[in-house]
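Annotators were shown the component list below and the corresponding predicted structure, then asked to write short factual statements about the assembly.
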Amino acid sequence: MYAVREGFAAFRRAPVLTGLSSAMVGLALFVVGLFGLAAYNLQLALTAIEERVEVVLYLRDDTRQSEIDLAVEELGGLAEVQGVRYISKRDALAQAREQLPEFGELFSEGSVNPLPQSLEVELRPGAHTSEAVRRVVETGTIYPFVEDIQYGQDWVDKLFVIRRIGAVSAAIMGGAFALVAALIIGTALRIAIFARREEIYVMRLVGATNWFIRRPFLLEGALAGMLGGLLAWLLTYLAYRAVYTWLFAIAWIPIAWVGIGLASGTLFGAVASGLSIRRHLREV
Amino acid sequence: MIKLTHVSKQYPRKGLALDDVSFEVGKGEFVFLTGHSGSGKSTTMRLIHMAEQPTSGEVRVTGYSSAAVSDRDIWKVRRRVGYVFQDFRLLPGRSALDNVAFALEVTGSPPKEIVPRAQRLLTQVGLLPRAGADVSDLSGGEQQRVAIARALANDPYLLLADEPTGNLDERATRGIMDLFWEINAKGMAVLMATHDLELVRSFSQAAVIELDQGKLVYDSRKG
Ligand SMILES: Nc1ncnc2c1ncn2[C@@H]1O[C@H](COP(=O)(O)OP(=O)(O)OP(=O)(O)O)[C@@H](O)[C@H]1O
Ligand SMILES: [Mg+2]
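Structure shown to annotators:
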């Protein structure tokens, strides 16, 4: 009871400083929140791309049918492979015509067809890993009649790199804000302790436990941290709405992540005050 | 209940504030601690309250030893030993009742018992009629009574009083002394620091310990 009352009293006593602590925690978590938003959507995109990852083997025009049949059988025998489809030059042209109507006018029936024949290797669901892709690619390169192999791996790799860069910059920026937040929380605490030094003195005198004396300050820090978490939630949500409205449709992060963010803000506030409380209490 | 054995206290850049002091205070005893200004009375009190550690020797208080007690356990000593300061150390801007209630609240008394108990304590020190007054508006003698009520809040075994009558006139002094005797009659030990030898002489039933420049020079129980 005492702790709750006094913990809240700090906001009345030093609203600017406590507000600043919250704002800093909020900014730190906002950076993390932005990254989370980006990472989550990137993850969604990656999964979508990975689902579609197919390995396509382009074959030379002079490949014999028996060679093609053998390759279809061998590739189809791989554990990761769902099925292998043969696309003849004619099929390729038909596909191209369908997707790009201008194409059809360029190559009328009978003229030379420039499109290669190919084998489309479809991976089993759940086998869209880079190892699986590599196995298929390795098998494919063995055939002398395979001219070229294409797969989505380039894209996947690039997205992973982007995500790693994002994670590192979010960690650095978030860490910097968190540090500033910790310093400000320490200062706010020092002022709160100073404002209550007479009470603290009497509490010690009459035999209050250390835990009892510290509790309001821990609570104050936790409260500032939680407010910071709420602020970060709001900012991240606004950023999400802005991107969604003006740029492109993205998904909102899972609510569990929001919960984790709020909890870590609260915990951060409590830990930050816990760390500086002992030192400042000794000065009283 | 209190036992000091070969206790010395050295402050930085000072001579010895206490020099090889040994004495005891037993259950229910009333003991005066006398000596000139600067002889080490307050230092002794602070050591017993474990606000400070002796440089050498051991202070034992109700089962706790200065050599072994940890910062986390000091509150247990504080609840067994009430301390009345010369300058009261009350919280200004709060009523007499609030000051006593504060001590009960921060030591974990059940919320429902706090106000009735604080009122009973103020009754005991004869200050109930002034319970609602801001302590800053009370007279020295009245403030002293609030400080005593607060020191009694946790039913201590021992009451330490540092110059409790230092700033009071003769009548107020007698009132406070009567109160201490009353408290002592109920079985609580009292150790009172004072340089008022007149006062000490007028209570010949009490034991007397005298300090001089940090040394124990007289203990009435040892002759
Ligand atoms: N915190 C301290 N730092 C340095 N010296 C101190 C400290 N506290 C007390 N002393 C010194 O120790 C000696 C004993 O002081 P103490 O306060 O115990 O005396 P006292 O008997 O209570 O005196 P008084 O009757 O004036 O209250 C004094 O010389 C004092 O200057
Ligand atoms: Mg003194």
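Statements collected:
1. The CA atoms of residues 193 and 281 of chain A lie 7 Å apart.
2. The interface with chain B takes residues 1-2, 198-199, 201-210, 212-213 of chain A (CB under 8 Å).
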